[in-house]
Design a protein that fits this description.
single chain, Lipocalin, five-stranded mixed beta sheet, 3 helices, globular
């Protein structure tokens, strides 16, 4: 039995806690409220790698300047997406000639630059295509570390709080020929990235703590040519659970290969043609993997196979207004994409049939995002088009902000973090 004295002590303790909470400074209470509402966007296309932030409430009219919470000038040229963890936003940039490559950390609340760090100095960088940049791969961030990748120029791990280097690799050769673009991903203790260049094509898994190579697999692909230009790819891998076994699906030129992420063992290969593949693979609710080949073809693959599954496991293919650079979205049983030439499409994920197509206009490189209500697409001239998912195209808004978008956006809480050609924006609905 609980005594009356014990009960009094409990009541007194509760009263003291309530008093402390009541007199807590407003700034601390605001921080608690922000931390609850905030969410992290740790890698290319977000925490689930699919461009979705369900439950976010984003503005749809960008002509009203009040929605811009802050705007920060970013020097140089870079198409890497911003990544977010708590109070930090990280992105990379480079000089136009590629001789200096940097990492920038921006404060989430104020937009002030916390770190502006030179990561690599290059006396004689390789050529980069004008539509690409020397800082296109998106970083990966976690609570205490940020991982930066500039292709063969180097892969670096920094302490996220201090910006100090923990480890760096500059011994992963690859002639990107038109510039690097593949982004790394984290899986358990591994940092996994593809290097598909003119001369070398392989996937490497690096121990995120030490920077040492855990496994490295050369691409065992029959390219059908000796011309290295047709062997290039800019793909970012995705990890999927297939029958309770994990697969890391890594697109390349001509084919896509699935590996065991822990060991690098090859599980299956599917040939689909193409080159310069950059869209991140997605999984449908039917359990198929969506792959875009970089030259206007998309396939759905049943990932439950082994060996060469080209003739047995391709469920459907589509070539009508298919994306080359932007990644698609999957919402329920529909796939939504906006092609490089500005054609929006809705595709049935079960059979690959076109539900609708709409010419929106503009040129697109950035991948669209979905906040749970609307789809947001950002073109290279700064036009932002918002439309609803569904079996009919329904436009919500069409407005303009900034000087154009090549980098895909990030979402944290109810904030949209946009990287234009020259600035980083924090957009928030009042």
């Amino acid at each position: 039995m609980i005594s009356i004295e014990s009960t009094r002590r409990v009541v007194l303790a509760v009263v003291i806690v309530l008093i402390v909470l009541a007199v807590k400074p407003p700034s601390v209470l605001a921080q608690i409220k922000r931390s609850v509402a905030r969410s992290n966007w740790p890698e290319f296309r977000g925490p689930t790698g699919d461009g979705k932030a369900i439950g976010a409430k984003l503005p749809t009219d960008f002509t009203d300047a009040s929605c811009v919470q802050w705007k920060t000038k970013i020097h140089g040229k870079g198409w890497s997406s911003p990544v977010i963890w708590d109070d930090q936003i990280w992105l990379t940039t480079a000089t136009f000639d590629g001789k200096t490559m940097s990492a920038i950390c921006v404060d989430y609340e104020s937009g002030e630059i916390i770190h502006d760090l030179v990561i690599h100095q290059n006396d004689d960088p390789d050529d980069c295509h004008p539509t690409n940049s020397y800082a296109s791969p998106t970083p990966v961030i976690e609570s205490d570390r940020v991982y930066l990748h500039f292709g063969s120029y180097g892969t670096t791990c920094l302490d996220a709080a201090t910006g100090k280097q923990i480890w760096q690799r500059t011994d992963l050769p690859c002639d990107h020929f038109r510039g690097p673009a593949s982004s790394p991903i984290l899986y358990k203790h591994l940092l996994i990235v593809s290097l598909d260049g003119f001369d070398h094509q392989y996937v490497v898994a690096i121990d995120k703590l030490t920077g040492e190579t855990v496994w490295k697999r050369d691409r065992e692909i029959e390219y059908g040519t000796k011309n290295g230009d047709y062997k290039k790819a800019f793909g970012t891998a995705s990890v999927f659970d297939v029958n309770e076994k994990m697969l890391v699906v890594c697109p390349s030129a001509i084919a896509t290969i699935a590996y065991r992420p822990d060991t690098g063992e090859t599980v299956w290969t599917v040939y689909h043609g193409g080159m310069n593949a950059s869209a991140r693979p997605l999984m449908t609710q039917e359990g198929n993997v969506i792959i875009a080949n970089g030259t206007g073809k998309m396939i759905a693959v049943d990932p439950r196979g082994a060996g060469n599954i080209t003739d047995s496991n391709i469920v459907w293919s589509q070539t009508r207004a298919v994306i080359k650079k932007p990644s698609p979205l999957i919402i329920d049983d529909r796939l939504y994409m906006v092609s490089d030439r500005g054609i929006a499409s809705c595709i049935d994920t079960e059979d690959g049939s076109v539900v609708w197509q709409k010419r929106m206009g503009g040129t697109f490189s950035a991948s669209p995002v979905f906040d749970g209500t609307n789809i947001f697409a950002f073109d290279e001239d700064g036009v932002i088009q918002v439309f609803e998912p569904g079996d009919q195209f329904k436009s919500v808004s069409k407005t303009t902000l900034g000087d154009g978008f090549r980098a895909s956006p990030a979402i944290s809480g109810n904030r949209l973090i946009l990287r234009s050609l020259s600035h980083l924006y924090c957009i928030k609905q009042d």
